[in-house]
Design brief:
11 helices; alpha+beta; 2 domains; four-stranded antiparallel β-sheet
Length: 314
């Protein structure tokens, strides 16, 4: 935790640098590079690298400007393994995919601190969310890049990955996950069990659990992107009677509820706030804060938590 706190302090400093430097350094082109000096690292990249180093201290991250490509090459090293990616304005892609970078979203993107209240949505926001959740948009829209994680979790192939999938217990249920998230899950579990001794909501949450699912080699529904379940980095916590509860946006949409995005927060099943906070403290993002909400879902993405302050809301 100490290293995470130190990393967070570094991120805060770089956020200030990110905010101040553009005004001191001259005009920027659309890629974020200085118009008069493309060899100077963009403040945004400085901030992202600080976040990634704090989130993943087991890897070494180095950067050099590739003048032939016209982008920053990010070299990741873990033990004897090395992987080169290109910044691609925050997408972290291999060289061969730079020509199709618009097919990918940024590695670190905006996650609100609290779920957005549907009662505050404007008509334009509602239609934008409806379009974002359409099958056509999800099938053709940008997907999350996973190349950055290959060297951390050994995910180059299913065979390589499954050598790292282990059985563990979480909140009394057996679940298969990547071995590297077992300890973060253990820390979350200890906090929840401790809270349940005095907090009624935490106690009732534990008692309400029907099942917990983890590793599953699959794509994200309606998209070509691989789910973080496919790397063993995500778990789904389902409550008893989940078939009759409002848990996941797409299940509601498939029931014919076109206004699924307007279902009030209090009408959706959700873990208690203190449980969500405990997960976030250990680097897990809760799917209940996404635009297309998935209230059973938690995934290990410490860079999203540490990078929240450098992300920009769409």
């Amino acid at each position: 935790m100490l290293s995470a706190l130190v990393g967070l302090l570094i991120v805060v400093v770089l956020v200030l640098v990110f905010a101040v430097l553009p005004g001191l350094s001259g005009e920027h082109n659309r890629s974020g590079f200085l118009a008069q000096d493309t060899n100077r690292m963009p403040p945004r990249l400085h901030a992202e690298i600080a976040v990634l180093k704090a989130a993943y201290p087991s890897i070494t991250i180095a950067s050099t400007f590739d003048s032939q490509i016209g982008d920053w090459k990010i070299t990741l090293t873990k033990g004897d393994s090395t992987k080169d990616l290109y910044w691609a304005e925050g997408r972290y892609l291999p060289k061969e995919l730079l020509g199709s970078k618009d097919n990918y979203r940024t590695l670190i993107f905006y996650i609100p601190k609290k779920p957005e209240d549907p009662a505050t949505f404007t008509k334009d926001q509602i239609e934008k969310i409806r379009e974002f959740g359409s099958s056509e948009s999800r099938e053709s829209g940008p997907i999350s890049p996973t190349y950055f994680f290959e060297i951390i979790y050994d995910t180059s192939s299913r065979e390589d990955l499954e050598a790292h999938i282990v059985k563990t217990k979480f909140l009394g249920r057996q679940v298969n996950v990547h071995e590297l998230i077992v300890e973060p899950l253990n820390r979350v579990e200890r906090q929840i069990f401790a809270a349940s001794q005095t907090d009624r909501e935490a106690h009732e949450f534990i008692q309400s659990i029907s099942s917990i699912d983890g590793y599953s080699w699959r794509q994200i529904r309606d998209t070509s992107g691989m789910s973080f379940h496919s790397m063993g980095l995500a778990i789904d916590i389902l409550p008893r009677g989940w078939q009759n509860k409002v848990v996941y946006w797409n299940w509601e949409k498939n029931k014919g509820k076109d206004d699924w995005m307007l279902i009030p927060l209090e009408g959706r099943w959700a873990p208690p706030d203190l449980v969500v906070d405990m997960f976030e403290k250990e680097g897990f993002v809760w799917g209940g804060k996404w635009t297309v909400w998935d209230n059973m879902h938690f995934e290990y993405r410490p860079e999203m938590i540490l990078g929240r302050e450098i992300s920009v809301k769409d």
